[in-house]
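Section: Multi-chain targets

For targets with more than one molecule, the full set of components is provided together so that the structure can be written out for the assembly as a whole rather than chain by chain. Components appear in the order listed by the source. The example entry contains two components.
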Amino acid sequence: MVTDLPKTDLPKIVEGWFVSFFEWFGELGLFCVRVARESFGAPWEGREFIRQMDDIGSKSFPLVALAGAATGVVLSLQTRDSLTRFGAQAMLPAVIVFSLIKESGPVITALIVSGRVGAGIGAELGSMRVTEQIDAMEVSAVNPYKFLASTRVLACLCMLPLLTLTADASGIFMGWVSTTLAHPMTFHFFLKSGLKEAAMNDFLPPTFKTAIFGLIIGFVSCFEGMRTQGGTAGVGRSATSSVVLSSLFIILADVILVRLIQVFFPS
Amino acid sequence: MTSTAEKPVADQTKQPTAEAPLVVSGLRKSFGSQNVLDGVDLTADRGQTIVVLGKSGTGKSVLLKLMVGLQKPDSGSIRILGQEIVGLDMDHLNEIRKKIGFLFQQAALYDSLTVAENVEFPLDRHTTLPDGERREKVRTLLASVGMEDASNKLPSDISGGMQKRVGLARALALDPEILLFDEPTSGLDPITTAEIGELVVKLQKERNLTSVVVTHDIHSAKSFADRFVLLREGKVVIDGTFSQLEQSSDSFVVQFLKDAG
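Its structure, encoded as tokens over all components, is:
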């Protein structure tokens, strides 16, 4: 027997989704423009910027170093067998070094920072929004877009490349440790073999593309935090969406950036 | 129960003056289809304390937020210290904001800063006081609200009443000419409520501030209010002294006072 299903106006629902989707992007765009504009011009928020650099950079350092080290070990373990099978074991240092500096290091750093910092910014600004601290700041004639958002975005922009270097270095080092346990070799030899074919274009563009990832983390997290509504539940939603959306945009941006690097900085 | 359309008493007793630090006229604000404020007029002369009353959701807090430019009205005018703030650019609005102190309902202290740093925040940003003088001013402000012993504590380590005191010290930091209070006694026990009320009276006497207080607490408000403004469905029902409220024949005013006990 066929029962009457509840009638839904599907076109209207779909239209609503589309409108919300484009509204979100529109608001994000306006937010980015406003924050970018506030970043240039007095008063300079030097102290807050340094505090954010410390919070985003220094405090992410151990986590990023650990993630980089784990990646180095995994790369060594995974690729050793494959390369041995094809008789290309001598390529192992180069595979580890190239994988880390070109892709694994930057992306893993960005995802780790997105998880730690993105959630932190989303929750902190969200909490400030629902407890009227951002309103209090505005009433005190302090521009929250400059004081809160612009400092965080710039700190993310500056710290991501530095953290990527950390991940690369610890990954290469632990890749050597893992490799040398199976086939002893000096670190100098490992590094020399790994970097023999490497050029600046293999190293600099992938490292500096993480500045774009930093912008994504900063903008998305600040945007989600500052538009929080709905009390503590809203704060939780902002923290989650900051991580999810910035991680997603990092992966999508990586596709475009890798292609652009190949075109503009050929190896 | 329906109320009669009684003309606001203020229209009969007090004419807006050009010098009044706070003049609101024809203010309208709606959210979607809901008219929160529907043509509100309000004038506060220098040194006056106006108490805004009304049931929850009648736009009292929205009125305060409009007065500091946190929200934009749909229409109407807000003149603060002779300057129209509706449509004012951010730089000029910020100059006006420096002359307004705002005590939020939950104090809205920055929870990553200590009590002293909260009070120091506006001073640090808008004055050129040397470090020593700035710290001395913070100490004086905290002493004036009885919170000098808590200067190194975080907001999370002090009670709600103490947070409001610190919020008040922060609101006074830039020596404002106008003070806005959003439910200064909500969520506080009767003793702390009385203390906050006494504090407001003391500060009014010391500084001759123009104040607008949004509250449900009509009893404590009697101790510091010069005039009461009662809102209903976004309109001013009555604007006058407490005795004028008591003498009003408007059914809504009568019922409101009865409900307030």
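Chain A has a mean pLDDT of 92.
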